[in-house]
Amino acid sequence: MRLGAKHENQIQIAHADFSGGLNTSTSVDGISENQLAQTVNLEVDHATGKLKSVSGTSDLFQFPNIFAAMYDAINQRLLLVDADKVVWCATSAGWITIGTLSGELYPITASWEDGLLIASGGKLQYFNGNALVTLNSPIANSVCVQAGRVLIADAKNLYLSGVGDETNWTENANIDSSAKFLEVGYKDGGELVGMVGLPSGVLLLKNNRRVYRLNIGFPAWSLVEISREVEVSGRLSACAVADSVFVLGGSEVQNLQAANVYGNAKPQNIALLIKSEIKSLPKNSLVRYVPKLNQIWILNGDFVLMFDLVTQSWFKRQFNSKILDVLTIGDEILIIKPDRVSKLDENIFSDSGAELTWSFQGKRHISHYDYLLKNTTVSYTPLDAELTNGKISAGKVVVNLSLSESGSSTRRRLIGSTVLAQNRNVYRNKFLEIEGRGGGGIFFNSITLDVVEV
What we know:
mainly beta; eight-stranded antiparallel β-sheet; five-stranded antiparallel β-sheet; 1% helix
């Protein structure tokens, strides 16, 4: 019993930890206290487990008809590809054209010696810091680098360049360091879809759910099958984090721990709680690791599904326009859109010139009898006092968050940088829904309900 309460059976329902993230696999009353039935543009604070609004964006520059973006970390150059597959390079003097993609596919890249290797479904290309060179290679749908060799793949075969030579694709059985090729999964009936380079090998993903691992030594190398349980949505639908690979399938996201060189690798489906969201994604959705945020992003138009690697939970972000890619360059996270390049900015709560709005729905509380809601308190920190706005509702009781709005039934007190917003309206119902929506930057400390079961 709380001191000063008029009812002996008064209890307090408090929501302060939202580290469980999104759960759409069950009913709203069936999710855990720290989970959300719906959420947009909110993520978890790693230090506290609290809920906070995502960062907005600031535009760096406009660029018409962007098809793709690449970053050459060796030369520190941003490359953009337009709708005609012409490749543009950012220089101190402005944007210059350096050539055209050899294929029609979204480019996959790998750093190599003087620059960037590019695979787009045609011949392998190499940007050496000055020019875009098309190499006399086999067809390259994907590319990675391992043990001093360049590896490319088409739908059937894996090709290894000569050691240290991206131009050498001629095999010589008498020379160990010459180029090599092999058919991955000979006569297993599948086509090679994706290739992911790891610190200790290369994972090869096929469209028949089989996964092979290539271990390269000198002169010895081996190819072993490690799983028959991994579906891959497309060539862009996998990414590596250290020695793990995350693979998007039609209704699942598998985490494949590839540390074991031999034997079967048991995949773990990390998307059991958001199966419906995964099933709604288009084929070949782009999967990216965003190191600074400790998140994996899956892109779908203006939406992003975000998997938090610290809390192992999912959240959802919605930009105000379509995004094509997300690139990490130093401490900056670039957002590539069809008409501009922006960067995430934790001090901004808008995108493409319009406010970012957030919303969430928490656990529905159901009573055996009735709930008598006596007091609703929201503790929050506005990250921008002028922009932060919104409403939190518990049933039909509404707590207004806007500091600039008066005349509502919400009382607000400022304690340091924290605001306590309180509504003492009494409300009676068999269940209580906790929901919120608003805009601007906000950090939620807690949502507390004083209730009596009557």
